[in-house]
Amino acid sequence: MALKNIIDLTDGVILRYICTSNDSRIDINIFIGIVCRLTIFTILIIFKDIKQYSIGELIVWFIVWLVQHIYILCIEKNYIILGESKVLRREIEYKIMDSLQLLIGIIFLSLNLNSYIEILILVLFSIYFLLNFYIIIFKIKIKEGYTENFQKQGGVYQFYIGFLFGAVWQYLKYQNTLSDILIITMIGQFILVVFSFIIFCRHKSKFLWSNDLAKGILGIFYGIKVGIFSIFYGFIVGCLLIIWYIWEFCLKKYYIVKKKKRQETEEI
């Protein structure tokens, strides 16, 4: 098993022990990574409500999730929508995304070491980060003799189903513990979901259901990740809605009256 033909230890295990085609290995690998992240997130949410997190912890969570969302919505967009999979490029981009998340965790833990468990996690994160860095450099130097690129159509339907599931799960999680901020967030999230549904229905003829199991499952979990994180998007939309309301029904009227008085004064 040549090192240049695998992404990491997980991919090596998939290649050696699981009967799967080469064009499904990277999808399965990324899927396993997403499941691990979702599992950790779910455990943390169960044992610690979002209102118990400090500002620093919320910022770290936001940045970590934002990194993966940029990866899903911007970098993996061509694969999700068009089905184009440039294998080597996708592997390098995946490891860069993974390394950025690890680096954020390393920096935060380095500044907030309070127990032996946190020290252990910091050591593990650091080792994994260095391994990722080595793999990225190694992959960048590969010029030829690598796994061939492939094309897999469809997957947007699965992605949107996952998105709706993640968004609804977040809503059900916090509907009984609403504060003023959460109410604004839920309103924004509702607008976001409705808007996305309208866009999906208008362009559904361009989208396809993926018959490939690996890509279909990956699409669902990509959607779940985006759907869960939509609570942050909802907060941004809700804040913009409040700003628009204040301007449209309060400040705008005041500004128009003040401007009119100024013009009348100048005419006199």
Automatic annotation (TrEMBL):
Record keywords: Membrane, Transmembrane, Transmembrane helix
Spans through the membrane: 26-47, 53-75, 119-142, 154-172, 178-201, 222-247
Domain of life, source organism: Eukaryota
Protein name: Uncharacterized protein
Native organism taxonomy: Eukaryota, Sar, Alveolata, Ciliophora, Intramacronucleata
